[in-house]
């Protein structure tokens, strides 16, 4: 398990001392935090203000103790390209380009929320939007991170202005390019579940599993191309519930949250 020790299970309130210990001694130096667009959805608005505020506060906590955070955010809460392709027969490339614009809207909301807390944040995108975002330049992104700024990658397909790749792939690609220690994917579930096991009427979630085990089981909570890319580049992946208070800051600092996926993981 190395630098990702198993923590005592329990609710956020019951593990506050453990949380503070992990935040004071972060195990990740630099991370890519992938936020699912679906997890940002509010009711009746497209974005839940409380969710955005919570994410910003917890990213700020990790940033303030030295974790370098880059964010890739989805756009499904605003627009789902696959739905429009199927229902309205819109050209796939056009539909996905609209989805890329949705990720920029989420990026701007996150930037504004972070800056309200006094955290400097920069948006970088492959789509030219010079009035609201910088062009993606790898060295500039790394420099921002080194200076303690949060970098938000928006308007991405696979980071090559290609809308046919997912934001999961963008996260994996950016992790490799900026030298991130891990890719953390925040979703609305507690981690990776074993659909074949039942315990008290529900599925069991894994704490630690290998890339190969997940690929063999047909894991669907993350793009398979992104998982394969992370495996090939030796980048661990953590899938966790970002809606649980305290999870984001704990995950960003390397505490045991959700499911850790790496080369040597054992099913546990």
From TrEMBL:
Its EC number is 2.7.4.22. It is found in: Cytoplasm. SUPFAM superfamilies: Carbamate kinase-like. One of its GO terms (cellular component) is cytoplasm. One of its GO terms (biological process) is UDP biosynthetic process. Gene3D superfamilies: Acetylglutamate kinase-like. It holds the Pfam family AA_kinase. It catalyses: UMP + ATP = UDP + ADP. Keywords: Cytoplasm, Pyrimidine biosynthesis. This is Uridylate kinase. It comes from Acorus gramineus (Dwarf sweet flag).
């Amino acid at each position: 398990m190395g630098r990702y020790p198993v923590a005592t299970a329990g609710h956020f309130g019951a593990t506050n001392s453990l949380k503070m210990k992990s935040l004071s001694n972060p195990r990740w130096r630099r991370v890519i935090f992938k936020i699912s667009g679906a997890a940002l959805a509010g009711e009746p608005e497209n974005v839940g203000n409380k969710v955005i505020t919570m994410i910003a506060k917890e990213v700020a906590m990790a940033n303030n103790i030295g974790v370098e955070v880059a964010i890739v955010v989805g756009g499904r809460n605003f627009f789902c390209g696959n739905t429009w392709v199927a229902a309205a027969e819109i050209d796939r490339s056009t539909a996905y380009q609209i989805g890329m614009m949705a990720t920029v809207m989420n990026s701007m909301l996150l930037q504004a929320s972070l800056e309200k807390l006094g955290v400097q944040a920069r948006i970088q995108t492959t789509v030219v939007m010079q009035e609201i975002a910088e062009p993606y330049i790898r060295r500039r992104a790394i420099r921002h991170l080194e200076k303690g700024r949060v970098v938000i990658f928006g308007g991405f397909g696979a980071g090559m202005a290609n809308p046919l790749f997912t934001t999961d792939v963008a996260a994996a690609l950016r992790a490799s390019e900026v030298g991130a220690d891990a890719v953390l994917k925040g979703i609305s579930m507690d981690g990776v579940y074993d659909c074949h096991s039942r315990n008290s009427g529900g599925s069991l979630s894994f704490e630690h599993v290998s890339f190969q085990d997940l690929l063999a089981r047909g894991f669907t909570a993350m793009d398979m191309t992104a998982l394969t890319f992370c495996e090939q580049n030796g980048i661990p992946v953590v899938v966790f519930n970002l809606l649980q208070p305290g999870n984001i800051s704990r995950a960003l600092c390397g505490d045991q949250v959700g499911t850790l996926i790496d080369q040597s993981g054992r099913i546990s």
